[in-house]
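Dear colleague,

Thank you for sharing your sequence with our group. We've completed the structure prediction you requested, and as agreed, I am returning the results in plain text so they can be pasted directly into your records. Please verify that the sequence below matches your submission; if there's any discrepancy, let me know and we will rerun it promptly.
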Amino acid sequence: MPKFCILGASVAKSRKTAEGPIAGWGQYMSEFLAPGWEVRNFARDAMTARTYFTDRFATLLNLLEPGDIVALDFGGVEQRINVPLRYHGKREFKEFLKLYVEGIRAQGAIPVLLTPCARCAFDVRGQVSDTRDGYPEVTREAAVETGAVFVDMNAHTGRLLQELGPARAKQYYRWIDAGEHPLHPDGMIDSTHFNHAGAREVARILASALESNPDIPAGTVDKATLVPGDYPPPAPEFTVVSPESALYATDRVGTAPVFTSPGPDRAVSGLQKFTGNAGPDTGYLLFFSQGAYIGGTAVNEQGRFLWRRTMVWPAGEHTVQAVGIARSGGVTPIASLRFEVRDHVAPPVVAAPKSGAWVNPRPRFNGTAAPGVTKVMALEGERLIGEAVVAEDGTWSMRHPHSWRPGAHRVEFVSIFSALHSTATPVDIRVLGVPEDSFLRTSAGARDRCGDKCDHYPFDGRW
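Please find the predicted structure tokens below.
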């Protein structure tokens, strides 16, 4: 029996019913393949191209037989430069994809490179926003360079979201109001992972793309199953009738809602979530910007709410207003919150060492970052090598736990603000040291070093 294997992270992972409403597209692939195919879904939460390759890829290779298909859905987790154990620079990511293709082909199986699905985010013009930071293009390049089968799921799902529009698209994601689902009583806003309807549609789209690809054997996909389903209905917040009237009501009841996040006058990203509390009789909240209705959300029995626009806020200063709808009738007083949206972040300043300076093998890097920056990440050759937490006064400092080898090196530093990252600040250092082939090293090479601060003699060239 031929196998259809799936490698990737949480978006493809099969889910149990008890985990609802989240679902992975991998759990629905069997519905669209021809009889006789066995689906094996190896996708796992937070799995990256690096971790699967080093932890599990050998096991998969031993399972593969000629004619099997392996779909690789990487590139979503790897773009997170603020998470050192997950981040892959683009060159590193491409190199891993090439290794997968080479290994799978060596077993006579067919590798299929997929780009990550689009996230549910729209700009103010209603166009789907690109949130994948160029990683789909890296996957495309790897497919061209290796000749592997390529399916641009980012483009396919982006077109789907564009057809659905902001009012319907969120109905395919794990995006629920407070009080709507028992597993998420305070609500859940997840613009990355799908619910069951969305996951099934993504699987259907992938199957359709495979069926039309000349490099996939005929008869792999059951054509009769590829009929598109009905679009989901608009989300409830887009069906509110005459919401602006709540701004001009003369008689108000209860208390105004209270925002708990973000704080007033805070700098935030364009995909900021708003949380807070409402009075005990409030059942629904309406949100406005410049007098125009921009969405709403339910309030749970404990009075908590969670809301985010499907559209990305443009850069600049904004004020959002919230009005509660009382279950007993009437509207609450108006709550207002000012905030500033940033769509870019300045690169960090490196105060020391100065670029071009001589340093010892254990240099300490330090500098300052713009207000709101939480971390500064260090990279060498596009690979992440360290991170520093930014203090409240905007300063940061880091020292790599390993000594640098003698010679010239370039280090790049990147600021992190929410989901944004800056361009890099490059610093060239010249590391002073004893060459590896020096007498000072080779003459003391009979013994293993006992630690970084070894006091035994003789000096072995390291400090």
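Summary note from our side: The chain has three domains: 3-225, 246-341, 349-432.

Kind regards,
the structure core
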